[in-house]
Amino acid sequence: MTAVMSVRRADITTMAVDAIVNAANESLLGGGGVDGAIHRAAGPGLQDECETLHGCATGSAKLTGGYALPATYVIHAVGPVWHGGDRGEALALASAYEAAIVLAQEHRCRTVAFPSISTGIYGYPKAQAAEVAVRSVARALASAPYVEEVTFCAYDDEDLAIYRGILSR
Ligand code: AR6
């Protein structure tokens, strides 16, 4: 079965999917942006579990429970900081998305939601990041038969329009 990719404008902390993806940092000890929102909504159990994980390299991902969130799991993926595009940012971003799909498959997640990793505090240009996101998720889904539905969660109208444009091609 071919997985479906779509975009929805939402606060990812409200999404009742098997796994939401967090745009985390290498410490996995929380931060601002979507990371802060996820930790606030999940409650302190999430932070306690994250402290047992000993961080996560850029381009990788680690999975925890969802605690008070409607999602069963949180997949903490670490995207790159944008330095202008010639420091391997696209490869690192693709790797973070692919690592998240690998974990979703391993944990039998049928439904997964992604924020636009690296495009807030880390400064990755939104349109370029969305191209990488859709391409890398599509590639990873070819080896993740359990994952049926991937939702790209747009937090603003700009991201909604960007993802709609890419997904309608
Ligand atoms: N739901 C969905 N998307 C959101 C939400 C939300 N509740 N809140 C923000 N976004 P960012 P990064 C969007 O800055 O650039 C943290 O401190 C936001 O509009 O959260 O990967 C981490 O700990 C943007 O499009 O993550 C790291 O230190 C996207 O989520 C650092 O920020 C990502 O923005 C990671 O920076």
**Cofactors and ligands present?**
ligand AR6
Which homologous superfamily in CATH is the superfamily? Answer: Leucine Aminopeptidase, subunit E, domain 1
Give the low-pLDDT segments: none
Q: From the alpha carbons, calculate the radius of gyration and give it in angstroms.
A: 14 Å
Name given to the CATH architecture = 3-Layer(aba) Sandwich
Number of helices: 5
Distance from N terminus to C terminus (CA atoms, Å) equals 20 Å
Question: Domains counted in the coordinates: how many?
Answer: 1
CATH level 1 name:
Alpha Beta
Quickly give the structural class. alpha/beta
For the report, how would you describe the main beta sheet? Answer: 6 strands, mixed
Strand content: 15-25%
Quick description:
37% of the residues lie in helices and 20% in strands. The chain has 169 residues and is an alpha/beta fold.
